[in-house]
Amino acid sequence: MAQDDVFKKVVAHCKEYGFVFPSSDIYDGLGAVYDYGQMGVELKNNIKTYWWQSMVLLHDNIVGIDSAIFMHPTIWKASGHVDAFNDPLIDNRDSKKRYRADVLIEEQIAKYDEKIEKEVAKAAKRFGESFDREMFCQTNPKVLAEKAKRDALHERFSVAMNNVDLEELRQIILDEEIVCPISGTRNWTEVRQFNLMFSTEMGSTADGAMKVYLRPETAQGIFVNYLNVQKTGRMRIPFGIAQIGKAFRNEIVARQFIFRMREFEQMEMQFFVQPGKEMEWFEHWKQFRLKWHKALGFGDDKYRYHDHEKLAHYANAATDIEFKMPFGFKEVEGIHSRTDFDLSQHEKYCGKNIKYFDPELNESYTPYVIETSIGVDRMFLSVMCAAYTEEALANGESRVVLKLPAALAPVKLAVLPLVKKDGLPEKAREIMNELKFSFNCYYEEKDSIGKRYRRMDAIGTPYCVTVDHQTLEDNMVTLRDRDTMEQKRVAIADLRELLQDKVSITSVLKKLS
């Protein structure tokens, strides 16, 4: 199946089964804004719990906060967002559509990568087990030609972005003959910068109103509170502060479903270290965060690092963890060495001493910071894309199943009476009421048992128990596994012990210890 078709099916599946709805749907929606439905909010909360516990529970030197969305406007001046939080935008005169110039060029680079991968895949199929990928890439004329084009474009693009050369970005688009996806033409305008922050006013009167911003990132709430946390928590460097919260960016080019939205949620941890030790901790968190992703079991080949060549003004090192979406490898998390930029800027703008006093060195200094930042919505999308599976069954039928990690699944156990009579619903409710204190259970009695199994497969429920007439005699139920579809008789009294560890967040956290 074409990857575009897979993505369309995932998007449709999200709406059909209560994971994600277009916001304001009855009013025909609001661009790049989405609501999480009854299944989506459970999956999202489980993702956040997994992240939070992996940070705060597993590390005795990391604590959490929840800072306000509204912050003093000078904070955004100090952080550079007022002056430098811009995207390079370009319009197509024929379609009247606006695009990010850097994204158009990145997609062109990805096309070269795809051509190379196609050549490699064809050769691998032709040569079988004897195929030497590295040798093939070093000697095949087609691969070498595409790689030369790709590398030349990448070098030119990096220089233009580092120099903020808007004219060169436009020239690259023209030279690469990049067309508008809507009109198919190359009738482009000049490239312009566009600030992404939403602004509003705070105050009871028009004359006394103060211009404030919806935060474009959650990190600054940590930086301005770091000394409060350090002193009240008696923290010693190195230590971290974790936060989960909403952020807002006026994305002009918002697309690919929930991958890029105007209102989104971040899971960020800022780790404060002694200057000079930042690269050691940068490598540590780079490794730990990739391990966190891989622990979900979607396959190591789904992930890769992408080291930044163009660094943000505050960073001395930066790496993305990319996940293989149906539309290519895309960033889901960033690990950045932010140096002392943020804290130094805030000290300068607030006029107060916010240095850390190190009792071991008996001196004060401005800590360096390692940041790990992951988009909840992007993580949600990567999980959905990886889990969505269409299977052909032995009896000639097919099924759609979300092979979600059991720890993240919205519903852990479905309790299903075989029929709606003879005391079976009452027995099923009894089981449900007993187990619902341990994990999220779902009760359903409508339709045949086969149709109910299919619905549970579609929302990713890892286990179902069926209550039948025999249950009333021996207190045994049929336990069905989502992935293997195997069924076995188990005692009701054993259900909690059988399932508890398999469906808990702890089962994944143990892989990180």
Textual characterization of the structure:
This protein has 18 helices and 23 strands. The chain is α+β, with helices and mostly antiparallel strands and 513 residues long. It has three domains: 1-72 and 218-392, 2-Layer Sandwich (BirA Bifunctional Protein, domain 2); 87-193, Herpes Virus-1 (2-Layer Sandwich); 404-509, Anticodon-binding domain (Rossmann fold).
- The largest beta-sheet arranges its strands as 3-9-10-16-13-12-11
Percentage beta strand: 15-25%
SS elements, strand count: 23
Question: Averaging pLDDT over every residue, what do you get?
Answer: 91
Portion of residues within helices: 25-40%
Sequence stretches where pLDDT stays below 50 over 5 or more residues: none
Radius of gyration: 26 Å
Structural class: alpha+beta
The CATH architecture term of the largest domain is: 2-Layer Sandwich
List the helices and strands and how they pair.
Elements: H1 3-16, E1 20-22, E2 34-36, H2 38-57, E3 62-64, H3 73-78, H4 81-84, E4 86-91, E5 98-100, H5 101-127, H6 133-139, H7 141-162, H8 166-175, E6 192-195, E7 199-202, E8 210-213, H9 219-223, H10 226-232, E9 239-248, E10 263-273, H11 278-294, E11 303-307, E12 317-325, E13 328-339, H12 341-350, E14 356-358, E15 363-365, E16 368-375, H13 376-387, E17 388-392, E18 398-402, E19 413-417, H14 424-435, E20 441-443, H15 449-459, E21 463-467, H16 471-474, E22 476-481, E23 487-491, H17 495-503, H18 506-509
Parallel strand pairs: 3-9, 19-20, 19-21
Antiparallel strand pairs: 1-2, 4-5, 4-6, 7-8, 9-10, 10-16, 11-12, 12-13, 13-16, 14-15, 17-18, 21-22, 22-23
Helix pairs in contact: 2-13, 5-7, 5-8, 7-8
